[in-house]
Amino acid sequence: MAFEFIKTGIEGLYEVVPTVFGDKRGFFLESYSRRDFEAAGIPAEFVQDNISSSSKGVLRGLHFQKQHSQAKLVSVISGRVYDVAVDLRKGSASFGSHYGVVLDGERHNAFFIPAGFAHGFCVMSDEAVFSYKCTDFYHPEDEGGLMWNDPEIGIDWEKYLEGEPPLLSEKDKKHPSFDRDASYFDIHAHWMGK
Question: Active-site residue 63, yes or no?
């Protein structure tokens, strides 16, 4: 198998580390193999690939789609980011919990995020080129989000932003707080409507 799938303690959420073949000429790796992912119990059919570029201190998130919930395989082509997923599947043992991993363009690790999660990241390097594969298409009218610094979720962004305030979009400044009593997604990642 060309990948190591590291369990995170949240059902369905994995850090993925590829096997890298390198010498003085450079390196080669498989960034995704449906065969290997299915063998690891991750049957995802990706339909859209996205790439974004962000400067140091940019924080994007916490985002999700409602009726068109997406599983994502995210990685960094160059640079470093702190990437976070928040479980919004009502009935999950980890509902409201988050897990974060540093994605590094030199390490080539990735993060598999199932449908039914909110997702965000902050940029630690001078610039980062971020890549993500999605299991559903982007639907701007279907966007949802949570406040990036919600105290109930408790993500420690400051450690990765080195004490500097994050650079946020106007949209990301206005997301609502997490509501533990609300129903976001069911355990199968179907939107229940908050």
Answer: yes
